[in-house]
Specification:
The protein is α+β, with helices and mostly antiparallel strands and about 550 residues long. It contains 18 helices and 21 strands. The strands form four sheets. Strands 1, 2, 6, 7, 8, 9, 20 and 21 form an eight-stranded mixed beta sheet that branches. Strands 10, 12, 13, 14, 15, 16, 17 and 18 form an eight-stranded mixed beta sheet that branches. The chain has a three-stranded antiparallel beta sheet with strand order 3-5-4. Helix 1 packs parallel to helix 6, helix 1 packs parallel to helix 18 and helix 3 runs antiparallel to helix 4. The radius of gyration is 23 Å and the shape is globular. The mean pLDDT is about 95.
């Protein structure tokens, strides 16, 4: 045996699994197709948001949360409808994860040195139904250090284990086959890739320089999803989401290619819920890209006016920050929109200064570096939008700025192959919307949502601007943002039981084979069901990686 356990994938789930194993003296071979610079995988690039329930941070902000409320939200969002088949384990994982988020998750992270911003974000406000999709209360806890801060303690653990001789890194080793002996997982085979010193996230060479085979008592697969493989995204794109976009921007590095899913299936592993996926509609082209087609997601506050490609205001609940897949479905299924791959935000300088956040560790240098002074200077005391947001406004290919609506729409039309937007029609919609802000009540669902958001102190202070007229010159200039579909997550994958054991085609565990993280649908082959509540992807990697590592330890 080359190790007690082989962990395939050095992302967050793999690092957590390795930590659990080496903490008890087990030896680990950590195999990854990228170089050492990419430890932590795509989690490193994340904003670091974590779904937590009934925390001190929430209570200080007068947010009343509970396990019961969170589970109601999760079920309404997941909409599990394959309970006797593909969702049989997914719903059990969902319940276990919500209990973890309402229980020991926060203290466990604190014990690893992870700390949180004092404010709590309100992501995925939902579809405006009490039993439907969405978070009833703010639950999005951002880690100091963003995704890098979440990954950091587990990277350190792996490095300490390597120094102690308990872990060996196999960088630039691409797994092409799971080895089964007598029906049990006993190792992996693949190609040793040519050395490549490319910086983190940059596309690396796939030239093979040799072959390798490793053996162990167990194998844990933690290789991530499909977000960079647009062909695979389109091949599993469900009819319920309409026509797949011809053009998308990419929210993850190129190595997030989904190839291990088919390799696992070739070894007899059962894949489920592959038609469930999570992509954003608020993607913009990165003006300073790291990987091919690099897109950044805008995390919007509730005030921007959202128009479709033809210049019509999107209907509720297709509002900024409310219902991600509901908005995607509307934009891809409306007969006259399916041929267009973009939509638009129209907003003011006043809105962008307070309501625009950009997803990604590199887009939030103050939080990523844990610089509290910079955070206060940039986001609380400073005037204007945060530096990275202003950089996108100045340099981003999808941003236009103008003092008048006529000029703004003319510039927006220059960003499309043909002029689709009519100034008079857009002006009429904005003026109707602006009439609604004069009173503390309104019939406009978006204005109601803005006022509701400002009742929460966290949003009022840092994320939601006071209602104002978009055409008020004092709030200007006007800003238009062309939005693209941004690929991100698969919500399905390898079906696992509550010990993270990978199941075969017969529904029985394959001895010695485990799966965790996105490749396992964050647990059970799809713990999110059809919709995510946000902060649950990093959390799903933490929880399922921990479960896999502990279960494999017990089995040795």
């Amino acid at each position: 045996m080359d190790a007690d356990v082989i962990v395939v994938g050095a992302g967050l789930a793999g690092l957590v699994a390795a930590h659990e194993l080496t903490s008890t003296g087990r030896t680990v071979a950590l195999v990854d197709q990228e170089n050492a610079a990419n430890l932590g995988g795509q989690a490193y690039w994340s904003f670091g948001g974590l779904f937590l329930v009934d925390t001190p941070e929430q209570r200080r902000l007068r947010v009343r949360d509970s396990l019961e409320l969170a589970w109601n939200d999760w079920q309404g969002s997941a909409q599990f409808d394959r309970l006797h088949d593909e969702d049989a384990w997914a719903i059990k994982w969902a319940r276990a994860y919500v209990e973890f988020a309402a229980g020991e998750k926060r203290e466990w992270l604190l014990a690893h040195g992870v700390r949180f911003l004092p404010t709590v974000g309100w992501a995925e406000r939902g579809d405006l139904r009490a039993n439907g999709h969405g978070n009833s209360v703010p639950r999005f806890h951002v880690a100091w250090g963003t995704g890098t801060g979440v990954v950091e303690p587990f990277v350190r653990s792996a490095q300490r284990a390597a120094e102690a001789g308990l872990l060996r890194f196999y960088h630039r080793h691409r797994v092409d086959e799971l080895v089964l002996t007598g029906g049990a997982a006993t190792g992996v085979r693949g190609a040793v890739l040519a050395a490549d010193d490319a910086p983190r996230g940059v596309t690396s060479s796939r030239e093979a320089a040799g072959a390798f085979e490793l053996s162990a008592q167990a194998v844990i697969v933690t290789t991530g999803g499909i977000g960079a493989n647009h062909d695979m995204v389109r091949s599993f794109w469900p009819d319920r989401l309409g026509r797949p976009p011809a053009h998308m921007v990419t929210g993850v590095p190129a190595y997030v290619d989904g190839r291990m899913l088919d390799i696992a299936a070739g070894a007899g592993v059962r894949l489920v819920n592959r038609d469930r996926m999570w992509h954003y509609t608020e993607g913009v082209q990165n003006w300073n890209p790291i990987w091919p087609g690099h897109g950044i997601r805008i995390l919007p506050g509730p005030s921007s006016l959202w128009l479709d490609a033809l210049g019509r205001r999107l209907p509720a609940p297709c509002l900024p920050g409310y219902d991600t897949l509901g908005t995607l479905r509307h934009l891809r299924t409306a007969p006259d929109l399916a041929g267009h791959d973009h939509s638009w935000f129209i907003l003011t300088q006043k809105i962008i200064e307070k309501e625009f956040a950009l997803s990604g560790s590199e887009q939030n240098p103050d939080i990523t570096s844990k610089d509290r002074r910079a955070f206060l200077r940039e986001r609380v005391l400073g005037k204007g939008a945060p530096g990275p947001v202003e950089a996108f406004k100045r340099h981003g290919a999808d941003f236009v700025v103008a003092d008048t609506l006529d000029e703004l729409v003319a510039r927006m039309n220059q960003l499309t192959d043909e002029p689709l937007l009519d100034t008079a029609a857009i002006r009429a919609q904005i003026e109707a919307r602006d009439l609604q802000v004069a009173n503390p009540f309104s019939k406009d669902a978006q204005i109601q949502g803005i006022r509701n958001a400002r009742r929460y102190i966290g949003d009022r202070l840092g994320r939601t601007v006071a209602p104002h007229r978009l055409l008020d010159p004092a709030a200007g200039p006007l800003i238009g943002v062309k939005l693209h579909v941004l690929t991100r997550k698969t919500l399905g994958g390898i079906q696992t039981d509550l010990d993270s054991r990978a199941l075969g085609a017969d529904g029985q565990p394959i001895p010695g084979l485990y799966a965790a993280g996105e490749v396992a649908g964050f647990g059970g082959g799809g713990a999110h069901g059809y919709n995510a509540l946000e902060g649950t992807f990093l959390g799903g990697c933490l929880f399922s990686g921990r479960t896999a590592g502990r279960a494999a330890t017990r089995a040795l």
